[in-house]
DNA sequence: CTGAAAGCGCTTACAG
DNA sequence: CTGAAAGCGCTTACAG
């Protein structure tokens, strides 16, 4: 049982470096040096000090240490929500790499609210986090770019580093590290997979104008159509408000209600949308893949449960890379751009097209 | 564009309170008081100071503030992994409540590793987190109890507070807040639901001796059998190593391989296990609920996708309550015990038993 | 290899 | 309502 120091009024208070020094019969400078482990020291002194540390259950005060100029041991991540599977997996990667480097993770959630994002960044600046990682889908309009440039410069000035994860770069004059993954390539592969099975009428579910993630997936979809010489019908691109299950259900439901089915396959902009769309199809007695083929994006838990062919994103690798690059860069305010690959994962949601569905031609 | 202070060597450095004071023509004490907002102050002075703060983009240094004795603005949570849906939802609740209270969240992941748990707690002590929340299933043996008692006392001594979430209390002499939910009651309701549908041979999938979560669910299962006058057959309780999908698959698969089916219904100790077991059943052509009825526990995402009747746990409420109680308690090292309710959520995974399965009698 | 002392950026009695 | 000064617990040149 470690002893506790009693202050004047008898209440226990945590031991300080002074207590340790007194206990070990050395100066505080010596204790500090021995604990830092980067100075030469006499073994006898060393063991005296370590013994005192153990006996007093001494834990250094991170605030004092931070004030005295030592780089703090924390990285920060800001996400919309920690229950979104994609964010959770990226965060998991961040945690792993942070733990490996002996860093603590500060996590901020915004719920998509700008006020909360600002407040989170502010608190992280106060804490002097070594890096601040922002992740996820955004609409990179002028206001967004200015906000990010402001964050980047403020963090750099404070010796920290802004990292953008799954977002586009901000431009050469903004000090930020960017870790992206290949949305367009993945969407190209997914669409090609359907095209190779003979599908020509492929519904794209979940377009959202202005937002980087769905837009780059639509781009891959269109590129694949073009590459296979299949005409592009804008009427097959369905808009969705958010990339969630319920939206997938709504979009498919409304499509089926609107008239005779004019597609044989579906490319859902993510797995959650695929799961929702699948439910709407089943309510009409349409099975996957016998009646309709479907491909998703993300390769997150729902995909395995519904046997969905989808596109794998290196979620955790994104988080690990973000931390690795941020901690590596000696100079705060570094700029770097990394693009990680994606690939298709084949399950059982695509059948060859036997030409049932009627096109508008 | 905020001005940046240039230090001697020309590199920008973040503004300090001194810069603000000089810029506003007042003393640092005045700036400090105005920013704290808890002292009387002259409106004219106030606006001068706020203007300087804005123009210099001043952010207070949390380390200096912490050192000077102000309670830090962070709560900490320690979980096995952030991608486990249960942990993620509890964490979401913690974040919400923390954000509401203007606190930052420090999140530690342990991967179930004791070394990492210890390291995380240590770092959180260094950071002087206001509360440290530990969540999840454990085997509360002597070593565990001693470890927790040590954490609790060390945190209390440092003015912080240990909170146990979904874990049993440690005893009256240990300063910890405990927020539990009703596992046994939920399991009783789930089992009763199956019994009411006429099932008598109910497989319990995922017993794990010594671990609090599965053990209290088994207890509810047994209590329900007893209450309904159905004989308890220990042979219907199947052991599982971890509460994951793959284990559910393995347990069901081995059970079906071992001989003729001797149950008409399944109570899975959580939804993931239910999803895995369902897959094994389907491989044998057994459908839910036509051939086998099934009930799970958690009411997390997989449940809706597989139409599973299950037990709802107030995951997020657990996290919110943990933070609320911890921040409320003025005296660090408070003791408190809260038990939140659970309830059954009926979907489409239970049919009346028509007496197909053969019991051992 | 070790110690005495300055300083990091705040807050808060203590005076006025 | 405001200012001068001590002090929080460390680290690190500066001496020796």
TrEMBL record, chains A, B:
Descriptive protein name: LacI family transcriptional regulator
Swiss-Prot/TrEMBL keywords: DNA-binding, Transcription, Transcription regulation
Pfam families, A to Z: LacI (PF00356), Peripla_BP_3 (PF13377)
SMART domains on file: HTH_LACI
UniProt-listed CDD domains: HTH_LacI, PBP1_LacI_sugar_binding-like
Matching PANTHER family: LACI-RELATED TRANSCRIPTIONAL REPRESSOR, LACTOSE OPERON REPRESSOR
PROSITE patterns associated with the record: HTH_LACI_1 (PS00356), HTH_LACI_2 (PS50932)
Annotated GO MF terms: DNA-binding transcription factor activity; transcription cis-regulatory region binding
Residue ranges of every copy of the HTH lacI-type domain listed in the record: 15-69
């Amino acid at each position: 049982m470690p002893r506790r120091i009693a202050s004047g009024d008898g209440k226990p208070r945590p031991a300080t470096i002074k207590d340790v020094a007194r206990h070990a019969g050395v100066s505080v400078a010596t204790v500090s040096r021995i604990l830092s482990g980067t100075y030469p020291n006499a073994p006898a002194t060393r063991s005296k000090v370590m013994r005192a540390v153990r006996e007093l259950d001494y834990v250094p005060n991170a605030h004092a240490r931070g004030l005295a100029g030592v780089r703090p041991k924390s990285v920060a991540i800001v996400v919309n929500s920690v229950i979104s599977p994609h964010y959770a997996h990226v965060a998991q990667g961040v945690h792993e790499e942070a733990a490996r480097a002996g860093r603590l993770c500060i996590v901020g959630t915004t719920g998509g609210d700008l006020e909360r994002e600002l407040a989170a960044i502010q608190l992280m600046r106060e804490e002097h986090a070594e890096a601040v990682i922002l992740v996820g889908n955004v609409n990179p309009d002028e206001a967004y770019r200015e906000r990010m440039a402001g964050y980047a410069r403020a963090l750099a000035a404070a010796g920290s580093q802004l990292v953008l994860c799954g977002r586009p770069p901000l431009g050469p004059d903004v000090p930020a590290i960017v870790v992206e993954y290949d949305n367009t390539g993945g969407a190209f592969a997914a669409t090609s997979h359907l095209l190779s099975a003979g599908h020509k009428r492929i519904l794209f579910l979940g377009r959202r104008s202005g937002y980087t993630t769905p837009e780059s997936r639509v781009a891959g979809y269109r590129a694949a159509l073009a590459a296979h010489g299949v005409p592009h019908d804008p009427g097959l691109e369905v808009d969705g408000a958010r990339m969630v299950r319920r939206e997938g259900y709504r979009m498919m439901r409304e499509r089926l209600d609107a008239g005779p089915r004019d597609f044989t396959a579906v490319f859902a902009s993510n797995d959650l949308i695929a799961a929702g769309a699948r439910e709407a199809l089943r309510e009409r007695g349409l099975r996957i893949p016998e009646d309709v083929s479907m491909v998703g994006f993300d390769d997150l838990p729902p995909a395995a449960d519904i046997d969905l062919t989808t596109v794998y994103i290196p979620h955790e690798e994104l988080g690990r890379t973000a931390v690795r690059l941020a901690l590596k860069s000696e100079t705060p305010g570094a700029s770097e751009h990394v693009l990680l690959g994606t690939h298709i994962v084949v399950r059982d949601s695509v059948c060859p097209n036997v030409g049932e569905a009627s096109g508008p031609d």
